[in-house]
Amino acid sequence: MFDWLEQLNEEQRAAVTHDDGPLRILAGAGTGKTTALTARVAWLLSNGTPPERLLLLTFTRRAARQMLHRTGMMLAAQQRANPLRQAAGHVVGGTFHAVAHRILRRYAEALGIPEGFSVLDPADAADVIDFVREEGCYAQTSGRRFPRKGLLLEIYSRAVNTGQPVSSVTAAVAPWANELVDQIIEICREYVTSKRVGGMLDFDDLLLLWRAAVLDDRLGPRLAGSVDHVLVDEYQDVNGVQVDILKALRKSDDRISIVGDDAQAVYSFRAAEPRHILDFDQDFPGARTIVLTTNYRSSQQILDVANAIGAEAPEGFSAVLHAANEQSRERPRLVRCADEDSQASTVCQQVLAHREKGTALKEQAVLVRAAHHSHLLELELSRCRVPYVKYGGLKFIEAAHVKDMLCAFRLVDNASDVLAWFRLLQLLEGVGPTIARRAVAALGLNTPDGDPMTRGQVLERWPSAAELLPVSARSHAGVLVAALEVRDGEGVPAHAERVRLALTPMIESAYPDARPRLVDLDALVVKAAGAARLSDVAADVALEPPRSTSDLAGDPTIDEDWLTISTVHSAKGLEWDVVHVLNATDGMMPSDMALGSPQGLEEERRVVYVALTRARKALHVYVPLRYHHRPRGRGDSHGWTQPSRFLSDDVRSKFDEATVEHESALHTAHPHVSDGYGRVDTDLEALWS
DNA sequence: TAATGGGGGTTTTTT
DNA sequence: ACCCCCATTA
Distance in angstroms, CA of A659 to C1' of C1? Predict the structure, then answer.
């Protein structure tokens, strides 16, 4: 027996050493779900499964990396006693989308997809929809409020992922647009055509085409046959398309292991359905289910809070969590603050206090429902010189110049990419939407059969497109187009550098603050060093957006200590000694955006549950009692908040409660304390002198 | 036709 | 606070 196997409990060991056939591990928060799946990978490897015949699907790349790292450690420990040659690093793994992308690149030809296809991130996809929307003049002719690109994409994507018709999705998501459903459907159709013609795939296409590939009579068996075991993490967050893929992959070989927890399903907005984990034994007949209930993460006091919140769900949560750890002396704290300013300074002080008591910043996290909820705290942390890294905002790829560069990369492999042309041409001085549109039309990307054109065909027409541009713009454009051409014997990094050089003057003239932007272009050239082709760089950045700007520039502060700020969604699967949960008020947590339906409210409850169960030793929940309508506005327009509806009397009884008085006399903590005369006196005092 | 400035509507979570 | 749309100006 291996050491690491000895350290598992009975259920975990049963799960890890389960022999063949479908396996479902239902694992509550902190019950060693990752440990079990990791150990199972190690177990399979040590039993002789070649690493490349394992397919490990995780929710984030971060989780995949963590899992492979831990697997590697287990195998290394075992190798000391009994040398084996496997390396965990070769396990095929990643998110569904990333794996789909890899497969589609490899089998593009067999699937009839252009080999240099572009991957559209959601913002790109929305831009393509907008292009279609503008072209058809829908907004003008309808004469009324018309859904905008973001909403149109949401409707399209939901329909695709749930298999529901656009009409019912529209009725559910945007009932006010019900009468426009015919136009919406038309836009969806044209969107699909545009993508086809331009050789562009959006995130949904990656899954749809992977599904098509595994369902294909010729390709399917080949794909399925190359995998011995499929392992899936966070199964409560899969959607119907993903389940289809798994079923097709395991049609004639039922070795699949999944882990998940329906109490932590928080991705219904992405068409995930917790029903799939409950129906696993129907989708994969003969499945064995193992339930992990012992929590190794949190103190019982913290679990009491989480259990109390779960108990109030209409149907309850299936698992009640029990702590295996010895009790911490600290009860969870519910801290009422005067307002968000006060909350920010209190959190900052608490973080520092814990640090003084010996909990490094890296062992602490601040969790928020929405990325912008941490804004004031970030200011305060900067003021107090507390370093932090924020996860959950998608800043970097949204930066315009980054998209510009990625579009150029895409054009190198896919000259038909309409969106990339449209975007890059508008960087030129004197070129706006109209001219760009005409020039793109002159490239004649629309072929009769609807397939993308080759680079040669497109570039042949470039001169006629260039004629439509203002004379002053032609030289920059010409340089860029020349840089797109592939030279024999030139490596990908050198080509990336050539593209950067061509793009630099365009960026300089298009953006007033060009200098810091050019640094990011360098970072993208560096990223190109390891890529097989330039469009892969664009796809990688889209599929795995750097969570923070520091991500892309490597990690210079690796030895330093920093605090984590994260959305609850991005914090899933992670844990810290000390967790601070911000804005536990009605409207923020639960988000009032979600209150339209009972299911929405229940999902919010699970979000809170996920947040609370991230904490190992100490948990602080903050409730600002009032908030400013306009952030930082001197106008002092504010409203009173309600504490989150999840903080019932029963839940509150598990907390130590505290109220923080604000240090400033301008912000009184309690509604009934009024010091009107005092203020008037102070104000007047100034006049008497 | 492109660039620019003001006003109105919207405002979650992520692959 | 931000994005989008529109009217105005160059």
Answer: 30
- Quick check: A153 CB within 7 A of strand B? no
For A344-386, the pLDDT digits (tens) are 999 999 999 999 999 999 999 999 999 889 888 988 888 888 8
Nearest nt to the A375 alpha carbon by C1': C1
List C-alpha distances in Å: A689 to A361, A578, A677, A686: 49, 51, 19, 6
The separation, in Å, between residue A469 CA and nucleotide B5 C1' comes to 26
At residue A43, what are phi and psi to the nearest 5 degrees?
-60, -45
A130 CA vs C4 C1’ separation (Å): 12
CA A184, C1' C9: Å apart? 36
| Beta carbons within 8 Å of A442's beta carbon, 6+ residues apart | A461, A464, A465, A467, A468
Distance A37 CA to C7 C1' (A): 60
Q: Nucleotides of chain B within 7 Å of a protein C-beta?
A: 1-3, 10-15
Q: Residue A199's closest CA among A480, A34, A474, A416?
A: A416
Task: Determine the 3-state secondary structure of A643 from DSSP.
Answer: strand
Beta-sheet pairing, A256-260 with A229-232: parallel
pLDDT tens sequence across A252-276? 999 999 999 999 999 999 899 989 9
Write the pLDDT tens digit of every residue in A541-569: 888 877 654 554 444 455 588 899 999 99
Q: What is the model's pTM?
A: 0.88
**Spatial contact of A266 and A572, defined as CB atoms under 8 Å apart:** yes
Please give the distance of CA A443 from its chain centroid, rounded to a whole number: 35
pLDDT at A286 over 90: yes
Q: Name the token pair of A259.
A: 């882990």
Above 80 in pLDDT, residue A114? yes
Nearest-CA residue relative to C1' of B15: A97
SS3 content of chain A, % helix, strand, coil (to 5): 55, 15, 35
Of all residues in chain A, what percent carry a pLDDT higher than 70? Answer: 90
Per-residue pLDDT, A104: 96
**Closest by Cα among A339, A341, A422 to A379:** A341
Query: Nucleotide B9: nearest residue by CA–C1'?
Result: A145
Gap from A634 CA to B15 C1', Å: 40
- Pair A669, A625: CB distance under 8 Å: yes
Q: What is the mean pLDDT of residues A499-516?
A: 86
Nucleotides of strand C within 7 Å of the protein's CB atoms: 1, 3-6
**pLDDT > 90 fraction of chain A, expressed in percent and rounded:** 49
* Per-residue pLDDT at A190 exceeds 80: yes
Please report, rounded to whole angstroms, the spatial distance between the CA atom of protein residue A429 and the C1' atom of nucleotide C10.
14
Q: How much is the average pLDDT of A300-311? A: 93
Proximity of residue A434 CB to strand B below 7 A: yes
From residue A676, how far is each of A34, A269, A633, A679 by CA, in Å? 57, 47, 21, 5
Q: What is the DSSP letter of A532?
A: S
Question: pLDDT tens digits, residue range A123-176?
Answer: 899 999 998 888 877 777 777 778 889 999 999 999 999 989 999 898 888 888
A158 CB neighbours strand B below 7 A? no
Asked if strand B comes closer than 7 Å to A679 Cβ, the answer is no
Query: Which nucleotide's C1' atom has the smallest distance to the CA of A268?
Result: B13
